[in-house]
Design brief:
- InterPro entries: HATPase_C_sf (IPR036890), Heat_shock_protein_90_CS (IPR019805), Hsp90_fam (IPR001404), Hsp90_N (IPR020575), Ribosomal_Su5_D2-typ_SF (IPR020568).
- With 625 residues, the protein is of the alpha+beta class.
- It has helices at residues 10-20, 27-48, 83-89, 97-104, 185-195, 247-257, 345-368, 370-375, 377-390, 392-398, 414-421, 444-452, 465-475, 489-492, 505-518, 544-554, 578-585, 588-605, 611-623; strands spanning 61-66, 71-76, 129-137, 145-151, 157-163, 168-175, 203-214, 221-230, 267-273, 279-285, 299-303, 306-309, 324-328, 403-405, 411-413, 432-437, 457-459, 479-483, 524-529, 538-541, 569-574.
- It is built from 19 helices and 21 strands.
- Strand 14 (403-405) and strand 15 (411-413) form a beta hairpin.
């Protein structure tokens, strides 16, 4: 057996870093500014411990473009580096100065957020540069003593002694020809807004004009002054205690996150956890209408105030990706390039905790001001229903505040509503039947029939309704949902009593044959029912099971084959209505016209009569005036 060390050849590693380490070349700016933030944070900590002497001064990080010389500069006034440290942290790949600092001062740091981990971020500069230079002076150096490091993206480098008046580091990127977009002010401004918006140290990019008002009243004079353009807010809302923030602070933060949004969120949830893992953030509930105009990728993931991604699937439960806001955690495991999550038990724990915090907040809001919660129900119900379908623990919590809204706009929890309808809506099998409508206007006639029987009807109009009621039926014993137009009302809530037909067996057979001869049998299944004579002569319904399966398949789920089935309807004939006898008493064309007119009326009630069929029906009706 033999042992040895694996050698990494720099000739081979540079092309890999330049092409494959980061999924997007624009990431270089985030990495270099993060390094500058770390250098500044280290200096603050050393000063606090008495290891760095003198005044810290202005610690603002500068971003400068020199378009003429095709250079982009990132300048900080942090700890800087000596020649030995350049050799240790720059000339050796994957040797992290941040990790080294944390180990050296373990237990002595005052909550310092050091960003770097892998020691590779600096090399992202070579993705956009033909040459990279470092001019750096350590806080430990003698006056003007500095070093100048130069490399052209290969294993060769130069390291010289130079003079530099101030402590800190200047990174000079000589931008390559294929990356000259990064010499444009608008492009760099866009990247700073994306990646540096909330970094912990002020970042300046050029200047801006500001109006200053001097004096009072009529003597007031407004003048314009040039001030540094600071691109970031170093203390965003999620870094503060909820006790220190008011509603207007959260509203301002939302505008800061989404400056192009014109709608205000309904409410917010502030996450502030330090055990068993680090997690902070603010989540906002947007207004989501029943048509489900949803925008995902609105939650931004940060690590120590450094933007990572807005694709948070995995750490945020799927149903909460409909929310907006920010999550920040030092404990979220990321890949080497900090561009996506690595799946591990911490991610799952954080996801479960976020679900719990959201459920806690919703229950708190419901208990604190039920009326206000109920007013917002239509805007948040899709998110809550989605959560109840996808997270069992959330379902158990949400049953306490998920609402049922009836056609009179009265609102009940699920348990309250089951108690409300009580024995009145229990069928002969002992099942409580909840009648619902997807469209109160379109299904008005069916609702009226249900109400005439003393039944109550709820409105369930979200795209998840079929999935949602299926979940409720499986979770509650002897609970059944039926849409009001799925059958006649006596069949939807079937009691023991049955109506008797006024027609004989022979007449019933003749009636069914006459109907089937004059309607489209591929579209309608003719069914005779012995109903009260005051009920409509013909009613068209969509069988609950068939419609529900089709809706579930359309929104994901249900049998895939259901989407291929033709549209079929139940054509229910009231055998006790006078029209039934009239149909039997007529023959030939007169019978056909009578049946077609009655069928068209039933189709009209269900909004199924269109085009030529509607035109022909109107013409026949006019001819019979």
């Amino acid at each position: 057996m033999s042992t040895g060390k694996i050698n990494v050849t720099a000739d081979n590693i540079f092309p890999i870093i330049k092409k494959f380490l980061y999924s997007d070349h624009e990431i270089f700016l985030r990495e270099l500014i993060s390094n500058a933030v770390d250098a500044t944070t280290k200096l603050k900590q050393l000063s606090r411990m008495g290891e760095a002497q003198g005044e810290l001064g202005d610690l603002t990080i500068q971003i400068e473009i020199d378009e003429e010389n095709k250079q982009l500069r990132i300048i900080d006034k942090g700890v800087g580096m000596t020649a030995e440290e350049v050799d240790q942290y720059i000339n050796q790949l994957a040797f992290s100065g941040a990790e080294d600092f944390l180990k050296k001062y373990e237990g002595k740091l005052d909550g310092a957020d050091i960003i770097g981990h892998f020691g590779l971020g600096f090399y992202s500069a070579f993705m956009v540069s033909s040459k990279v230079e470092i001019i750096t002076r350590s806080y430990k150096a003698e006056a003007n003593e500095a070093v100048h490091w130069t490399c052209e993206g290969n294993p060769e480098f130069t390291l010289d002694t130079v003079e530099k008046a101030e402590r800190g580091t200047e990174i000079i990127l000589n931008i390559a020809e294929d990356s000259e977009e990064f010499l444009k002010e608008s492009r760099i401004g866009e990247l700073l807004d994306k990646y540096a918006k909330f970094m912990q140290v002020p970042v300046q990019f050029g200047t801006r004009e500001e109006t200053v008002k001097e004096g009072e009243g009529d003597d007031a004079v407004e003048t314009k002054v040039t001030v540094p353009h600071i691109v970031n807010n170093t203390e965003p809302a999620w870094t503060k205690s909820p006790a220190d923030l008011k509603d207007e602070d959260y509203a301002q933060f939302y505008r800061e996150l989404y400056p192009m949004s014109f709608e205000q969120p309904l409410f917010h949830i502030h996450l502030n956890v330090d055990y068993p893992f680090d997690l902070t953030g603010v989540l906002f509930f947007p207004s989501i209408k029943p048509n489900m105009e949803i925008q995902k990728n609105k939650i931004q993931l940060y690590q120590s105030q450094v933007f990572v991604t807005d694709h948070v699937e995995g750490i945020v439960p799927d149903f909460l990706t409909l929310l907006h806001g920010v999550i920040d955690s030092k404990d979220i495991p990321l890949n080497v390039s900090r561009s996506y999550l690595q799946n591990d038990h911490n991610v799952r724990k954080i996801s479960s905790h976020i679900t719990k915090k959201v459920a806690d907040k919703l229950e708190e809001l419901f208990k604190a001001d039920r009326e206000d919660f109920a007013q917002k129900w239509n805007d948040i119900k899709v998110i809550i229903e989605y959560g109840m379908l996808s997270e069992e623990k959330f379902f158990d919590r949400a049953k306490k505040f998920a609402l049922m809204v009836n056609t009179k706009e009265e609102k009940f929890t699920i348990d309250e509503y089951i108690e409300k309808v009580g024995e009145n809506q229990v069928n002969k099998n002992g099942e409580t039947v909840i009648l619902y409508t997807a469209n109160p206007e379109a299904q008005h006639g069916f609702i009226a029939k249900a109400q005439a029987k003393g039944y109550d009807v709820v409105v369930l109009d979200s795209p998840l309704t079929s999935h949602y009621i299926q979940k409720l039926e499986s979770s509650y014993e002897k609970l059944k949902f039926a849409r009001v137009d799925a059958d006649t009302i006596d069949k939807l809530i079937e009691k023991e009593e049955n109506n008797v037909s006024v027609l004989s067996e022979k007449q019933l057979e003749d009636l069914k044959s006459a109907m089937e001869e004059n309607v489209n049998k591929a579209k309608f299944n003719v069914r005779l029912e012995n109903m009260d004579s005051s009920e409509l002569p013909l009613t068209i319904t969509v069988p609950e099971f068939m419609r529900r399966m089709k809706e579930m398949q359309a929104t994901g789920g249900g049998g895939m084959f259901m989407g291929d089935l033709p549209e079929t309807y139940e054509l229910i004939v009231n055998t006790n209505h006078p029209l039934a006898s009239r149909i039997l008493d007529t023959e030939g064309d007169e019978r056909g016209t009578l049946i077609r007119n009655a069928t068209d009326l039933a189709m009209l009630q269900q909004n199924l009569l269109h085009g030529e069929a509607l035109t022909n029906f109107i013409q026949r009706s006019v001819d019979n005036l």
